[in-house]
Design brief:
alpha/beta, Ribulose 1,5 Bisphosphate Carboxylase/Oxygenase, Rossmann fold, 4-stranded antiparallel sheet, 8 helices, 9 strands, 30% helix
Length: 231
């Protein structure tokens, strides 16, 4: 049985087991119970009343967080020569095609997001077995296959993230850092949940959002009162 650390015991002692916290309460509390020496990620877990095995109930989308993620996102743009300057001016960390395709084939995946133009997808397709499991495969459904590479790079750098429900019906996402001011945490979570609500599949019956938990790296989860998102 895993041993509970002193800090974890203190954190658990501050969370009321049966209470569902308002978003503002949870934002304040998650900062109080974060004790890591590094700036912890702020994570959200949303359990949905969907069946991910059904294509029409697959919840997937993107959200532009008002205050970003607090993370320096490394972006690779795979494109033809005519788009190189646009991508570089927008702030892409890596830009090119053939050399990066070969690097990825060799196992290089030290990037957070890959953006590609439609015309090069034929060369990127075979990389699916490497990029797919890591969530790096460019996809037009989330806007990472596009001709507007400059705009897309800027959006990603400023805090645009993508998410999808997993096989257990849960959406996981990192929405910032524990060092964020409470108001910024509230704004990011509220924006994320607004998008989740908009993506409710028409075929879902009963409760759509079953539970929402907010936590930071290595901290216990704080259960949120779903109704608080409209406060």
């Amino acid at each position: 049985m895993a041993r509970i650390t002193k800090n974890t015991k203190i954190a658990l002692g501050k969370i009321e087991v049966d209470k569902q916290y308002t978003l503002s309460e949870a934002a304040k509390l998650v900062k109080e119970i974060t004790t890591t020496k590094f700036d912890s990620s702020l994570d959200i877990d949303v359990r949905l009343g969907v069946d991910p095995r059904k294509a029409e109930q697959m919840v997937r989308g993107t959200v532009s967080l008002p205050h970003g993620t607090g993370k320096d996102v490394k972006v690779l743009v795979l494109c033809t020569p005519d788009k190189v300057a646009e991508a570089e001016e927008a702030g892409a960390d890596y830009v090119g095609l053939e050399e990066y395709v070969e690097k990825i084939k060799g196992g290089w995946t030290d990037i957070d997001v890959i953006i590609a133009t439609p015309s090069v997808m034929g060369k990127i397709g075979p990389l699916g077995r490497i990029l797919g499991p890591r969530g790096l495969m460019p996809n037009p459904k989330i806007g990472t296959v596009t001709m507007n590479v400059g705009t897309t790079v800027q959006e990603v750098k400023q805090g645009k993230i993508d998410f999808r429900v997993d096989k257990f019906g849960i959406v996981h996402a990192a929405l910032g850092k524990a060092s964020f001011e409470m108001e910024k945490i509230v704004d990011n979570v509220r924006e994320f949940m607004a998008i989740i609500n908009k993506l409710k599949p028409a075929t879902v019956k009963g409760t759509y959002i079953k539970s929402v938990y907010l936590s930071s790296t290595m901290s216990p989860g704080i259960r949120l009162d779903v109704k608080s998102f409209s406060e």
